[in-house]
Design goal:
Layout lengths: L2 H22 L1 H4 L2 H27 L6 H15 L5 H23 L4 H27 L4 E2 L5 H23 L2 H11 L1 H6 L4 H27 L1 E2 L1 H4 L3 H13 L6 H19 L4 H15 L3 H20 L1
Antiparallel strand pairs: 1-2
Helix pairs in contact: 3-7, 3-8, 3-10, 3-12, 3-13, 4-5, 4-10, 4-12, 5-10, 7-10, 12-13, 12-15
């Protein structure tokens, strides 16, 4: 193998290791505001990569992210004062996964628009059911959540992020990943080749929900107070889809890059243009869809290919 090809294969893992080292030591040199900002970015990255594990290869557009995230949030609100934080996060992730198993078993025979509508309806159903229960049965709305310091929230979110990356990598490089890709390209053909299509879809859907629930459970401790509208915010259903598309769905690091850039952009726009940031978001998305069909990673790869072609032409 030539040195050039060897370097091209090693630079991405090397860069990833450097980034993880910087993130692991981040609280030693960053300000409190920056730690909070990066925690929010990691939250969006976790939601986006979790979403892309299932929806990326299969083409099934799930809008249930807010439901799984919200289950984690309410788990933390209900059990945060009774159990240790790691146990609460584990229960939140398992509860979200069980909900995904149930929903997947019932709905993953649906396709296209029907599946997207159902998953979005799930978010609204759980939100309003909880709101009705709290107002009618308990006479309250919302709950207070045990407070955890920002550094702890950051490191827990970082651990969730690392575990998610390992899971996504293992799935992508396994036969399970090939089965998912086959389902996305031609579901009937995959079934004829012996793939248990329903089982693969349902289990992958449940695996993706694990990390969304864990993220919700730890992020709830930063908000102090939550209610159904905060926990099951439909905005969190659409953002992973937009972020993954913005970064580039067909690439390994596309959802990560898209979520990181989009989350930072959201923070800047909300701070500087609080009344117009959604309008700016919409304009950016229109530009991306029209001129960047393969996302940011696709654009970077296109530039890289052009640079290589120029070098070959000169040589």
């Amino acid at each position: 193998m030539s040195n050039a090809r060897l370097l091209s294969k090693l630079w991405i893992p090397a860069l990833l290791v450097i980034v993880l080292i910087l993130l692991a030591t981040f609280t030693l040199y960053a300000s409190a505001y920056t730690v909070i900002l990066v925690t929010s970015i990691l939250m969006y990255v976790v939601l986006t990569v979790s979403w892309s594990i299932f929806s990326g290869p299969t083409g099934y557009i799930s809008l249930a992210s807010a439901a799984f995230f919200g289950v984690g949030v309410y788990t933390s609100a209900l059990l945060g004062t009774k159990l240790p934080l790691p146990i609460v996060i584990l229960i939140g992730s398992l509860a979200s996964s069980c909900l995904a198993l149930l929903v997947g078993a019932l709905t993953l025979r649906l396709r296209g628009t029907y599946f997207a509508i159902f998953t979005f309806g799930l978010v609204e159903f759980i939100k309003h059911l909880l709101l009705w229960y709290e107002i009618r049965m308990t006479g309250t709305r919302g709950r207070f959540v045990i407070v955890v310091d920002n550094n702890t929230i950051y490191y827990v979110m970082l651990i969730i992020f690392v575990l998610l990356l390992l899971t996504a990598y293992l799935i992508r490089r396994s036969r399970w990943g090939l089965a998912l890709k086959g389902i996305g390209e031609n579901e009937e053909a995959a079934a004829h080749m012996g793939v248990n299509v329903t089982l693969v879809k349902v289990l992958t859907f449940a695996i993706s929900a694990v990390f969304m629930g864990a993220a919700g459970a730890i992020m709830a401790t930063r908000w102090t107070y939550i209610d159904p509208y905060i926990a099951f915010n439909y905005f969190l259903s659409f953002m992973p889809v937009l972020m993954a598309t913005f970064g580039g769905l067909g690439y390994v690091f596309g959802p990560i890059l898209g979520a990181a850039v989009f989350a930072y952009l959201e923070e800047v726009l909300i701070t500087r243009f609080p009344y117009y940031y959604m309008l700016v978001f919409g304009i950016i998305l229109i530009i991306v869809i029209l001129y960047l069909p393969n996302g940011l990673v696709g654009l970077l790869q296109k530039w890289q290919n052009r640079r290589v072609e120029r070098q070959h032409a000169i040589a």
